[in-house]
Amino acid sequence: MTTILTVGVAVIDIVMSVEALPRMPEKYRARDAAIVGGGCAANAAAAVARLGGQSLLAARIGPDQIGDMIVAGLADEGVDCTLVRRVAGGRSSFSSIYVDAAGERQIVNFRDVALSFDATWLAEALPDGVDAVLADSRWPQGAAVAMKAARDRAIPGILDAEAPVREAGEALRHASHVAFSAQGLRDLTGLNDLDAALDLARQETGAWVCVTDGPAGINFFENGRRAHEPAFEVDVIDTLGAGDVWHGAFALALGEGQGARAAIRFASAVAALKCTRFGGRTGTPTRAEAEAFLRSKT
């Protein structure tokens, strides 16, 4: 079984399905609702487990009720939480999220800025036998440790690069693969033209780079030339967590030895299926569902 270590944030999402995103200081009634685990790294870890990989998560949470919910939800998904550190005096992160009729989301997140960012303990605790490492840029210190460890072990080190990207500058220097969101890429380069921005990011980092741009698909470099993999067209219900599960599926595919284009296509199928289901990461498909979807598109 392929083993993937993910490093970064874990939260609880309180998700409300509404006709339109709230604009006024009034009361609104939800059409549906869910309380589910979230966070870039945690969602990716859950996706790895659901897709048949061995999943380990390293994250920082508080010793509180929200933290209990985070760990319980991940354990239910089959994620190994041995490296989830409960920081004394800290408060776990949670979000209030609205999802409209088009599947777009609005997020208000609480993050305890006093929760220790220290990652020295992680460097001493990283296990052997990992096939790839994925880190988000929300915990820059942890991402730096994770990407350096991946480079030292000659395994894929994938950075999920969200704004503000330069806070994770050390991780950028060590990552073998950097997957930018469109916002993250613009933040790094200051350029609105994503093609030019991606070329600049490749020159700066020396890594394999791509940019995920929602329904516009994925731009990347293949054999030194710009390449594109289109997004799959689906009826979108909920985009919450789609980018996170894309990164988890991409890391798993790389850890299995798939090439970059095949990994992108697999990850895009997983994210597309997730978007057809309400409830954040609970909509992540199984491996069998993702592979059946891909067969239907060939």
Automatic annotation (TrEMBL):
- InterPro entries assigned to the protein according to its UniProt record, in alphabetical order: Carboh/pur_kinase_PfkB_CS, Ketohexokinase-related, PfkB_dom, Ribo/fructo_kinase, Ribokinase-like
Q: What is this protein called?
A: Sugar kinase
One Pfam family here: PfkB
GO terms of molecular function: kinase activity
* Alphabetical UniProt keywords: Kinase, Transferase
Q: Which domain of life is it from?
A: Bacteria
Q: Does the keyword Oxidoreductase apply?
A: no
Where in the numbering of this chain does the Carbohydrate kinase PfkB domain appear?
A: 1-286
Q: Which PANTHER family match?
A: KETOHEXOKINASE, PHOSPHOTRANSFERASE SYSTEM TRANSPORT PROTEIN
User: Gene3D superfamilies, per this entry?
Assistant: 3.40.1190.20
By sequence similarity, the record places it as follows: Belongs to the carbohydrate kinase PfkB family.
